[in-house]
């Protein structure tokens, strides 16, 4: 890690600051194989950090769970995705669509695409995924009319909406775009409507985790006698206290449906 | 363009299953309102204050929209292009618009006359706009809002969609949350992922959510693997499961077992004889403590009911639920021959069910399930403490509860029991947004009313003795940072770089 020049991608050994929203930050020493627990879910360094550009927002398991259900993914689903990024979403998709489905994932960055291919092989899921290195906004997903669902996690999703329509089956399918900023969402919704998508819906899912504690509050001294029996009203109680006071924002999830016109 | 991996794209599993067929389970959609029905010719269906026949949907693709025309017939409606933004006359603000209730020149009778003439909904909306004295003065935004409101009221557009966990969980939460213990759909989504529900698993589920959770699991497993459903009372309620319209083959891996035999199974006192005398000819599915479960038959009478059960006047509702996947040609018990045939049929079914229960018992006794899902109205603690014994080590479990407090207790008891790691008590909040040019803002924040989840992983009990660390942390959720955060170093531009 150099203090002299900006580096784009996170490497092992770097210190990355995770911004968890509302000013809450955690400094993390990036290490292959390590994990960090946050209120949003588990962050795996090898998959979620190494190779990603500084400044990117990460999809946590809470988001992924909602996306999986809202895209109606199941064994046999054919899914198109871009960008591949860390592959955390790809892996989640593959787990759901196996053994009869397939994932077509498009990654613009040559190194990351290669990395993703290696990891899929390492994890023995290569047969369920095809990685293509191209710009999804220019060249699409590389397949046409085969997908049940399309997932986008890219800076300019509105530029890929037309390609998403083309990648989806003629009889229809589901669309989802993940964007940190509302302006991106606005542009994407405009593009979706113009392209003929219906059932537009923008959601945000916020996780809250609770600590379970047994708490005892001391009884006040009202001067009513020193050795009275402990009142049952002031006994210890169990409480689920929020792990962090404020819940941060990861991104907006915009969903839509393609139905034949 | 480079590709990797094997042959992309599997063979389609059900070619042509995007067209609606007679007998299919579908969901009717109008705006944000849903209703699950089975497509049956010449069967009257009511939805959103209208009645119609579904005959005309057969052969069309899922997602097609229809309009209800006179006589209860559905006509496909082409997706209309959004009218291009012609410079409509519009005002700048509402300072001169007075709400005196007199701005619409058409009376209720006029509108009724239009409707009776068979004038289409969008034509009525057009008439309303033309006869409104204030429409021109409204801002563009207000005009849009006005048009949308009138369309909603007068255009009867219904879309026929394919059932899915997404659609049905949204439907149930909106229409009958009580039936699913107020489990909001994002919570269900978390359960499926936390529980790692996927093809090939052997899952145990105990739910009293009308079979919605079971259906969601079946969808995610795609017919691969097996599910053993433990049920209270006389039989499992699977009203919601039927709405998914799964193929018959999915039933091969679905087992059920009575909850009140679990104890004997765990203590080795279970025997086949215990299964023979289940009363099956009650019209109601009763709880062992006497409270009523939902009646399938009564749903037919109720026009507002959200899910219409297939035709069955027979008191044996239990059988209706079991034979939900019968093909459309099978008409039902009332068309059977003599009473003798009926009794024989009934005995055959009972014997089959008994066999299934025994198979389920055998599967459970292996104590190697890949996961456990609990989502019921019962207190979760005793359920977990027993049912976890059926689960293999290093596997996930998820418990849903409408309330947080029972899960606090459950958490503590599980810690005491041991053999569990990564215990996590969580909740999700869901916020939806209106996204329109210059008018984007959040709409609703749904929090607190969607239920809570307690999840974790099993570990081998033997390991526990050697590793006391696992039991010691009674109250914290584990932090798995492997290094101390190096708070001093920051990645930031140096001023002299």
From TrEMBL, chain A:
Q: Know the name of this protein?
A: tRNA (adenine(58)-N(1))-methyltransferase catalytic subunit TRMT61A
One GO cellular component from the entry? nucleus
Give the gene that encodes this protein: TRMT61A
Q: Where is this region: Disordered?
A: 220-244
Q: What does this protein do?
A: Catalytic subunit of tRNA (adenine-N(1)-)-methyltransferase, which catalyzes the formation of N(1)-methyladenine at position 58 (m1A58) in initiator methionyl-tRNA. Catalytic subunit of mRNA N(1)-methyltransferase complex, which mediates methylation of adenosine residues at the N(1) position of a small subset of mRNAs: N(1) methylation takes place in tRNA T-loop-like structures of mRNAs and is only present at low stoichiometries.
Query: Is tRNA processing among the key words of this record?
Result: yes
Q: What's one GO BP annotation on this UniProt entry?
A: tRNA methylation
Q: Source organism's superkingdom?
A: Eukaryota
- Indicate the segments annotated as coiled coil, or none if absent: none
- Record-level Gene Ontology MF annotations: tRNA (adenine(58)-N1)-methyltransferase activity
Q: Which family does this protein fall into?
A: Belongs to the class I-like SAM-binding methyltransferase superfamily. TRM61 family.
Report residues binding S-adenosyl-L-methionine. 107, 135, 153
Q: How does it assemble?
A: Heterotetramer; composed of two copies of TRMT6 and two copies of TRMT61A.
**InterPro entries assigned:** SAM-dependent_MTases_sf (IPR029063), TRM61_C (IPR049470), tRNA_MeTrfase_Gcd14 (IPR014816)
Q: Which Pfam families match?
A: GCD14
- Name the keywords, alphabetized: Acetylation, Methyltransferase, Nucleus, S-adenosyl-L-methionine, Transferase, tRNA processing
The main enzyme category here is transferase
Q: PANTHER family from the xrefs?
A: TRNA (ADENINE(58)-N(1))-METHYLTRANSFERASE (PTHR12133), TRNA (ADENINE(58)-N(1))-METHYLTRANSFERASE CATALYTIC SUBUNIT TRMT61A (PTHR12133:SF2)
Where does the record place it? Nucleus
UniProtKB/TrEMBL annotation, chain B:
What organism, scientifically named, is this protein from? Piliocolobus tephrosceles
Top-level taxonomic group: Eukaryota
Which GO biological process annotations does it have? tRNA methylation
Provide this UniProt record's keywords sorted from A to Z.
Answer: Nucleus, tRNA processing
Q: Does the keyword Nucleus apply?
A: yes
Which family, according to UniProt? Answer: Belongs to the TRM6/GCD10 family.
Mark the transmembrane ranges. none
The positions making up the signal sequence are none
One GO CC annotation: tRNA (m1A) methyltransferase complex
Record's protein name: tRNA (adenine(58)-N(1))-methyltransferase non-catalytic subunit TRM6
Major location category of this protein: nucleus
Q: Where in the cell is it found?
A: Nucleus
Q: Compositionally biased, Basic and acidic residues: which spans?
A: 79-100, 327-354
Q: Which gene encodes it?
A: TRMT6
Function statement: Substrate-binding subunit of tRNA (adenine-N1-)-methyltransferase, which catalyzes the formation of N1-methyladenine at position 58 (m1A58) in initiator methionyl-tRNA.
């Amino acid at each position: 890690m150099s203090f002299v020049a900006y580096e784009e991608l996170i490497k092992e050994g770097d210190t990355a600051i995770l911004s968890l929203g509302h000013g809450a930050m955690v400094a993390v020493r990036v290490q292959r194989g390590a994990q960090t627990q946050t209120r949003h879910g588990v962050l795996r360094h090898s998959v979620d950090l190494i190779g990603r550009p500084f400044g990117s927002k990460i999809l946590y398991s809470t988001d992924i769970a909602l996306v999986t259900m809202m895209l109606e993914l199941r064994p046999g689903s054919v899914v198109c995705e871009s960008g591949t990024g860390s592959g955390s979403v790809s892996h989640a998709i593959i787990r759901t669509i196996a053994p009869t489905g397939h994932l077509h994932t498009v990654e613009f960055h040559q190194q990351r695409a290669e990395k993703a291919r290696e990891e899929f092989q390492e994890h023995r899921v290569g047969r369920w995924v095809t990685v293509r290195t191209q710009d999804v906004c220019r060249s699409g997903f590389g397949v046409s009319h085969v997908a049940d669902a399309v997932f986008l996690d890219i800076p300019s999703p509105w530029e890929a909406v037309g390609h998403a329509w083309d990648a989806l089956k003629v009889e229809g399918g589901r669309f989802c775009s993940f964007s940190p900023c509302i302006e991106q969402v606005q542009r994407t919704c405009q593009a979706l409507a113009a392209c003929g998508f219906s059932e537009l819906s923008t959601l945000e899912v916020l996780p809250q985790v609770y600590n379970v504690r047994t708490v005892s509050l001391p009884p006040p001294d009202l001067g009513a006698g020193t050795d009275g029996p402990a009142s049952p009203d002031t006994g210890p109680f169990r409480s689920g206290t929020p792990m962090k006071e404020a819940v941060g924002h990861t991104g907006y999830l915009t969903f839509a449906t393609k139905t034949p016109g | 363009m480079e590709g990797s991996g094997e042959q992309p794209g599997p063979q389609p599993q059900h070619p042509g299953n995007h067209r609606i067929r007679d007998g299919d389970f579908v969901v009717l959609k109008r705006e944000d309102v849903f209703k699950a029905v089975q497509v049956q010719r010449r069967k009257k269906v009511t939805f959103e204050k209208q009645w119609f026949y579904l005959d005309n949907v057969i052969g069309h693709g899922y997602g097609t929209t229809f309009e209800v025309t006179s006589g209860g017939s559905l006509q496909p409606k082409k997706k209309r292009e959004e009218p291009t933004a012609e410079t409509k006359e519009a005002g700048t603000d509402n300072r001169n618009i007075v709400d005196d209730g007199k701005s619409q020149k058409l009376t209720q009778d006029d509108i009724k006359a239009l409707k009776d003439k068979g004038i289409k909904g969008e034509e009525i909306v057009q008439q309303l706009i033309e006869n409104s004295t204030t429409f021109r003065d409204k801002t563009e935004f207000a005009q849009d809002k006005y048009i949308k409101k009138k369309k909603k009221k007068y255009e009867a557009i219904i879309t026929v969609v394919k059932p899915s966990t997404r659609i049905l969980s949204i439907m149930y939460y909106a229409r009958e949350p009580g039936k699913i213990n107020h489990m909001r759909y994002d919570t269900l989504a978390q359960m499926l992922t936390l529980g790692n529900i996927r093809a090939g698993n052997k899952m145990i589920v105990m739910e009293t959510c009308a079979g919605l959770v079971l259906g969601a699991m079946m969808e995610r497993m795609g017919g691969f693997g097996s599910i053993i459903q433990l049920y209270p009372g006389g039989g499992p309620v699977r009203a919601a499961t039927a709405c998914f319209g799964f193929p018959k083959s999915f039933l091969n891996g679905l087992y059920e077992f009575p909850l009140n035999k679990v104890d004997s199974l765990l203590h080795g006192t279970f025997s086949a004889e215990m299964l023979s005398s289940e009363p099956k000819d009650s019209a109601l599915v009763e709880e062992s403590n006497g409270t009523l479960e939902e009646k399938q038959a009564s749903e037919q009478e109720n026009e507002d009911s959200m899910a219409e059960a297939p035709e069955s006047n027979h008191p044996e509702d239990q059988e209706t639920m079991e034979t939900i996947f019968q093909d459309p040609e099978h008409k039902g018990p009332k068309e059977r021959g003599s009473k003798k045939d009926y009794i024989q049929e009934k005995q055959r079914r009972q014997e089959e069910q008994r066999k299934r229960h025994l198979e389920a018992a055998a599967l459970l006794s292996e104590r190697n399930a890949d996961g456990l899902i609990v989502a019921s109205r019962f207190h979760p603690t005793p359920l977990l403490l027993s049912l976890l014994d059926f689960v293999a080590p290093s596997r996930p479990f998820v418990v849903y509860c409408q309330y947080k407090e029972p899960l606090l207790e459950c958490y503590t008891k599980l810690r005491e029991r041991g053999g569990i790691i990564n215990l996590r008590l969580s909740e999700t909040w869901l916020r939806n947004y209106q996204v329109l040019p210059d008018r984007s803002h959040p709409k609703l924040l749904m929090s607190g009313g969607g239920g809570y989840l307690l999840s974790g992983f099993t570990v081998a009990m033997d390991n526990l003795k050697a590793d006391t660390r696992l039991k010691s942390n009674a109250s914290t959720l584990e932090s798995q940072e492997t290094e101390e955060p190096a708070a001093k170093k920051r990645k930031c531009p140096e001023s002299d770089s």
